[in-house]
Amino acid sequence: MPPIERNTRTSKIGFIPTLKTQIQEDPQIVPNVLIFCFNDTENPLNMADFEAPNVMKRTKKWSVQRTRNMKRRKRVSNQKRGWWEIWKNSLKYKGDWLQEVQGTLMLVATVIATVTFQGAIDPPGGIWQQDVWTNCSWKQGTEVHAQVGTAIMACKSLYVYIRYFMANSISFLASVSVILLIVSGFPLKNRVFGGLLTLAMCVAVACLAFAYVCGSAMVNGNQTSQSYLWVLLRVWYGIVGLVTLCCVIIPFLIWAVKTFVRIFTDSSKVSHVSTAPCRETEYVSQ
């Protein structure tokens, strides 16, 4: 290793470039350089004629000022975001709530499946106990043969009964899907499966409420009560739809878009890095 002069100011000013050149020529001198640097008791100057203690003081002041600026920018950004962002972040739960309420979801799904199954085999208004000929609302003035075991309301209120049967069936299938998702051991930490589970539970509860209103309308002959029930159902559906849209659908779509953008960006970076050596080789060959 060639001797490094450090007794003069000129050598101290040019110390770093000289050392860099020597390390590039002979990398094995790094241990000797470390010993040389740590044994130095003087305060060498850099290119701006600042000693090491002064540089440390300036660095410390700069870091403190940078921290203050970051806090000030964060405060200003929070004010610009408004109350909507603050409220959304405060409602955001950081834990794995699906795993914590897994047993409760299983119980609720089982109860909904039991209720809807019973409502399918024993509909509101009962069933015919024997074969009869009766007048149906959808065939005025014509008698229809009603078989034993069929729903009575299928003849008396066919359109309302069809709505009831469809809502009851959808609620049953959604609750059974929730049970299968929990029992089969799908990773609930995954946002895709978590979103499907939440959506299935929302569909099951919403269709159960719709089936309740249809069943009440079939067995209740008062038209005023039926109109009140339909109005309440529409209001409740509006609230549930708004909550589902803001808390489930929109966050899931945002997460999906961010995931696809990140995957596309990473793949483009990888392809760019993989093609860079080839271009350099072509340039060297030319």
Automatic annotation (TrEMBL):
It is found in: Membrane. Keywords: ANK repeat, Membrane, Repeat, Transmembrane, Transmembrane helix. The chain crosses the membrane at residues 165-186, 192-214, 235-257. Residues 96-218 form the PGG domain. It is a multi-pass membrane protein. GO terms for cellular component: plasma membrane. Pfam families: PGG. PANTHER family: PGG DOMAIN-CONTAINING PROTEIN (PTHR24186:SF37), PROTEIN PHOSPHATASE 1 REGULATORY SUBUNIT (PTHR24186). This is Uncharacterized protein LOC111458021. It comes from Cucurbita moschata. The lineage of its organism: Eukaryota, Viridiplantae, Streptophyta, Embryophyta, Tracheophyta. The gene is LOC111458021.
